[in-house]
Amino acid sequence: MPTFKIDDREIPFEPGETIIRAAQKAGIDIPHYCWHAGLSVAANCRMCLVELMPPPGRPALLLDVLAWDKDKQEYLPQKKPKLVPSCQQAAADGMVVKSQTSEHVDTARAAVQELLLLNHPVDCPICDQAGECRLQDYWLEHQASKKRMHDEPVHKPKGVVFGPTIVYDAERCIMCTRCVRVSAELAKDPVLSMRERGNLNEITVAPGRQLDHDYTLMTEYVCPVGALTSSDFRFKARVWFLRSARSTCVGCATGCSSFSDFDPRNQKVYRYRPRENEAVNKFWMCDEGMLDYQRIHQHRVLAPLIQGESVSDSAALERAAELVKAASPQKTAILLSAEHSNEDNLALLDLGKALGALQIFYTGRAPGKGDDILMSEDKNPNVAGVLALSGGRAKPLADLASAIKDGKVGALVALGSAIGNPNDAGVLKEVRNFVALSTHEGPIASAAAVVLPASSWAEADGTFVNRQGLWQESDRAINPQGKSRPAFRWVQELAKLLSLSLPWKKASELRALSQGPSLSAPPPAAPVGGE
Ligand code: SF4
Ligand code: SF4
Ligand code: FES
User: Fold this and answer.
1) What does the alpha-carbon distance between residue 484 and residue 86 come to, in Å, rounded to a whole number?
2) Beta strand 309-310 with 84-85: parallel, antiparallel or unpaired?
3) Residues 454, 439: contact at Cβ < 8 Å?
4) At the N or C end, where does the chain have fewer CB atoms within 10 A?
5) CA separation for the pair 251, 381 (Å, rounded)
6) What is the bridge-based pairing of β-strands 433-438 and 268-274?
7) Residue whose C-alpha is closest to residue 158's, from 194, 202, 193
């Protein structure tokens, strides 16, 4: 592999890679605003300037400049190396780059910082980006000096509503055009552009349009400063109080890698962010997925229920055991859920096996909008996992509805909350011995005689198999809400009451079994350098 040097460190690179990307993959941050690994190169902020040393025997590229001479107290003509934007310059074998060891680079970065902050309102105390803003970080690292301009800064529009999800503050904008490129290149909807020039320019939405494509929150996500804020997140939390868990989005079968940002003090999830994964979502998530965290705290079943009345854990478990015992194995059915992890589904499958139940079905959320960017029409994260775990034996919900109508189902143990076809909701109510393990209110919980409150995907570690057949982990972010427990824990309790033994005791054993031979190997670790 070819290599080049940054500040005496040898960096390998793929042919065609830019200096900044190769450095980022090697864990070296060259300061930047406009560059993003997933977007085209704009090279307009000039924060990533580096000094290129000339190859042996070749003269350096020099610029004529005027420099202040302290002794003579006047500007004198001098030569200085021409700096290059490392976001645009392709790496070359044997190249020698100075990033942190060049006084010219230091001066240039400080000057860029000062220019960007000349008209900035410095309203950090009320800015949602505070704590994760590059202007703040780079001021400290590369400028760290007081403002020299004391004139009234140029004022621009604030609080401009770009669309249903995004609010724009032109005074904080550094015109890096990342948001413009996300709209044009990721969402394929060039609805944003820049207008005016110099210190009057601002980002604007195309006349007659709103910023309303399916990836609007990615414009806010890539904005390196607080110019774009999400209507959903703004003024809700300070980022330094939040912690992050490595999660997998359960909004659809794509299974984008994400971070769940939560506040450990109130055990609440506040937002999702994309986690870089070259094999699945690269750097991105869709709006539907980004806002899907809201379901963690909405319409939850938080206590055990018998006929809709809240009861104790033990009362619900005992009643559930009675209902399941009352039916013969031939008439006992298991309903798996593509909303739930492999662990929850395998636990229920194991219970079914121990009961001798031969009828296995699966369901999940109804299909929705898909596209050729990320979004899948299948709005469940784990259809592939459910089918693989059941060895392809799980039949769709329509078959369960027919079996119920034919009187073949005496007891039903169901996992999940939603059903793919709302028309099947009525027939579920015909099963009297119906035990549900549900996270949310919905057709399953309302039809069941006993409901055991299951923890959501954010409250338990779990694995999911996406539409490509990739096995992906999702880590627990918050504690189980209310009296909920991971569904596999309820199954374990139920099995104990029924005097049945399951082939696992600990969550780690269940995890190992739920990776079964029919599931593919985990994808390689995501490359470093997401932002
Ligand atoms: S709004 Fe943000 S992303 Fe868009 S140009 Fe301004 S600073 Fe860049
Ligand atoms: S494409 Fe699917 S998995 Fe990815 S963010 Fe959107 S809803 Fe989530
Ligand atoms: S990152 Fe903006 S010019 Fe290179």
Assistant:
1) 51
2) unpaired
3) yes
4) N
5) 7
6) unpaired
7) 202
Q: Quick check: CB of 43 below 6 Å from ligand 3? A: yes
**Amino acid at site 85:** P
DSSP-derived 3-state class of residue 191: coil
Count of C-beta atoms within a 10 Å radius of residue 6: 23
Reading the chain (531 residues) residue by residue, the pLDDT tens digits are 899 999 999 999 999 999 999 999 999 999 999 999 999 999 999 999 999 998 888 888 899 999 889 999 999 999 999 999 999 999 999 999 999 999 999 999 999 999 999 999 999 999 999 999 999 999 999 999 888 988 999 999 999 999 999 999 999 999 999 999 999 999 999 999 999 999 999 999 999 999 999 999 999 999 999 999 999 999 999 999 999 999 999 999 999 999 999 999 999 999 999 999 999 999 999 999 999 999 999 999 999 999 999 999 999 999 999 999 999 999 999 999 999 999 999 999 999 999 999 899 999 999 999 999 999 999 999 999 999 999 999 999 999 999 999 999 999 999 999 999 888 989 999 999 999 999 999 999 999 999 999 999 999 999 999 999 999 999 999 999 999 999 999 999 999 999 999 999 999 999 999 986 555 544 444 333 345
Ligand 2 contact, 254 CB (< 6 A)? yes
Q: For residue 115, how far is its CA from the centre of ligand 3 (angstroms)?
A: 14
pTM (whole model) above 0.85: yes
DSSP state of 116: H
Helix/strand/coil for 330: helix
Q: Ligand 2: does its nearest atom lie under 6 Å from the Cβ of 256?
A: yes
